[in-house]
Amino acid sequence: MPAADPTLPADRFLNRELSWLDFNARVLELAEDDSLPLLERVKFLSIFASNLDEFFMVRIAGLKRRQSTGLTVRSPDGLTIREQLALVTERTQDLMHRHGGVFTKDVTPLLEAQGIRILHWSDLADTDAMRLREYFRDQVFPVLTPLAVDPAHPFPYISGLSLNLAVSVRDPDTGAPRFARVKVPNNVPRFIPVSPAGGQHSDATAVFLPLEDLIAAHLGQLFPGLDVLDHHLFRVTRNADLEVEEDRDEDLLQALERELARRRFGPAVRLEITASMDPQILDVLVSELEISPSDVVSVPGLLDLASLMELYDLDRPELKDDPFVPATHPRLSEGETPKSVFATLREGDVLVHHPYDSFATSVQRFIEQAAADPHVLAIKQTLYRTSGDSPIVSALIEAAQAGKQVVVLVEIKARFDEEANISWARSLERAGCHVVYGLVGLKTHCKTALVVRMENGVIRRYCHIGTGNYNPKTARIYEDLGILTADPRVGADLTDLFNTLTGYSRQTTYRSLLVAPRGVRTGLVERIRREARHAAEGRASGIRIKVNSLVDEQIIDALYEASLAGVPVELLIRGICALRPGVPGLSENIRVRSIVGRFLEHSRAISFVNDGEPEWWIGSADLMHRNLDRRVEVLLRVNDPAAQRQLQQVFDGALAPDVLSWELSADGSWRRCGQRDHQRELLTGRGEHAA
């Protein structure tokens, strides 16, 4: 990676780990926002917890692994690994206590006021307790496995993210104390309905008992003949960041499957406990898990609030956002009748903006029509993540079975989707698709599809390039952009790109694309510096960037230099931002905002004023080292005038002064500002609210 500019101030970068925690704090602010529907607040509590789990499994685990090497590596903001871990630990513990407090002190009473209650065993009426004893006997007891700890039974393996009961028992004959562990099964609902209604109707009272409470009330059945003295709940987070050693002579599938098996046994990086945890039991856990006391977090109330998504799934529409039905892009239908995607694209490009434009009637229909069209000769596509019942994969299988040439690059190293992608790869291979796994040492993260069609004796190519995955489920909750086009230049570029991904081509230059790892950083830095030259010469200049994360030091330094030259820079960064805006003599002309809302802002788009000849780009790459150096990423130059105007509107709407967002200050703090909900305006302007 090229070095950052040493002539700029040494303190110009914010810490990426702390910046990510600031992003998750913005998610938590939405859970605290009493203007949101109650179950939407519950959803954000769940998302916060799930986000933090992954942060520990990957980022904290990575820092600890680097610390164990003994190397004195400093982050770009000048912190040692030890200093980063200390700051991150303090910040995460503060956030986790705040998170637990929001649930117990704020949201729980409001849920109870709406008839949604979470009880303890001691709160149950006798009739309810009797019914739940039968449920325990029939549904829970058979899947429980108490594990003793003594000289004949070593301390058991504790799986990552599982809930566990640490149980103290005593032999009544000898008086000797014993320790045992009971895992709370994850294939039984976490929240058990106390009444048969279970909240299935909007007017029903939904009362639940946590599964761990049910198990704790019946520990005597697990340890007959012993006295159960006490029990305490705990949860372990483990390192789940895979390190696949890629060897050109080894089957990547086999190497990855071997590493997936190892993931289960990664070292512990966090131990969550309840406030009532017995100190002696805690000492046992810390010792046996080989974890530092600083990695122990005492959580108020329930552990594992990611499971609150079970409550969000209750049928209580009055406590949620209004349902939304994405609209078909107006160019892809005539009234209620779908149009041929191919005929539409011959008239011009179509830019789709999900979830406001339906994924099912645009990108998915493009692949499905290609699979069914007898004139289509070949389909080539990249798959990074998709859904468990993917209609895209089904269409590709049907195309191969119909005799079409189908080439699918399945990225089997997509984090936490590895097993699913291995399964998809094998299903596609069995159907006759040509399946490849990309380039050694690189993840293929780009979102591209190429359809080759014979029309009146002439080959024509149709393309899709997007910012999001080919996943119809996440396309309803992720904000993304995509271009459907029949532009011959884009078709030629994707043909060259697929030849690089599937063969031995060393193509590095393209007509309408910037392709990482060689082309995206250099291409963007060149264009940023061009804007700086325009500003210095008194010509029109300006840069707008919308990405999930901005971390790359060389791109940040180029933006600082552009600001110093007088270029107005507007950045819309959902998550991590290592750039300091508004610093005198460095970044007065840079403004950074973040939108966090109902939909996950996920699109990547960039615009350059370029002295009145603007350039617009969309693609898959965030501005991070991994994306620019270790992934195949694609940015597409958008040339269609209508698509350019639409992108302009997206930026103008999101960056308007009164839009509800968070603004980043020079000291690294984020301030909530504005009132107007940009996502809601797009919903009402592009989609249809259900009656």
Concise summary:
This protein is α+β, with helices and mostly antiparallel strands. It folds into 3 domains: 33-319, 2-Layer Sandwich (polyphosphate kinase like), CATH 3.30.1840.10; 324-506, Endonuclease, Chain A; 514-689, Endonuclease, Chain A (2-Layer Sandwich), CATH 3.30.870.
Q: What topology emerges from the helices and strands here?
A:
Elements: H1 16-32, H2 38-68, H3 81-113, E1 116-118, H4 126-140, E2 147-149, E3 163-170, E4 177-183, E5 191-193, E6 206-210, H5 211-217, H6 219-222, E7 227-238, H7 252-263, E8 268-274, H8 279-289, E9 296-299, H9 309-312, E10 324-325, E11 333-334, E12 337-338, H10 341-347, E13 350-354, H11 363-372, E14 376-383, H12 391-401, E15 405-410, H13 418-430, E16 434-436, E17 443-444, E18 447-455, E19 458-466, E20 478-485, H14 488-502, E21 513-516, H15 520-536, E22 543-547, H16 553-564, E23 569-573, E24 590-594, E25 600-601, E26 604-608, E27 615-619, H17 625-629, E28 631-637, H18 641-654, E29 661-664, E30 670-673, H19 678-686, E31 688-689
Parallel strand pairs: 1-6, 8-9, 14-15, 15-16, 17-28, 20-25, 22-23, 23-24
Antiparallel strand pairs: 2-4, 3-4, 3-7, 5-6, 7-8, 10-31, 11-12, 13-20, 14-18, 18-19, 19-20, 21-28, 22-26, 24-29, 26-27, 27-28, 29-30
Helix pairs in contact: 1-2, 1-3, 2-3, 11-12, 15-16
Care to describe what's here?
It catalyses: [phosphate](n) + ATP = [phosphate](n+1) + ADP. Belongs to the polyphosphate kinase 1 (PPK1) family. This is Polyphosphate kinase. The protein is an alpha+beta fold and 691 residues long. The protein folds into three domains: 287 residues, Polyphosphate kinase middle domain (polyphosphate kinase like); 183 residues, Endonuclease, Chain A, CATH 3.30.870; 176 residues, Endonuclease Chain A (Endonuclease, Chain A). It is 36% helix and 23% strand. It contains 19 helices and 31 strands. It is globular. 43% of the residues are buried.
